[in-house]
Amino acid sequence: MRKINKSIKQKFNLTMPEKIKSSKTKKEKPLVKEVLLNAPASKVWKAITNKDQMKKWYFDLAEFKPEVGFEFQFHAGDEKKQWLHLCKITEVAAGKKLTYSWK
Question: Taking the model in full, what pTM does it have?
Answer without folding.
Answer: 0.64
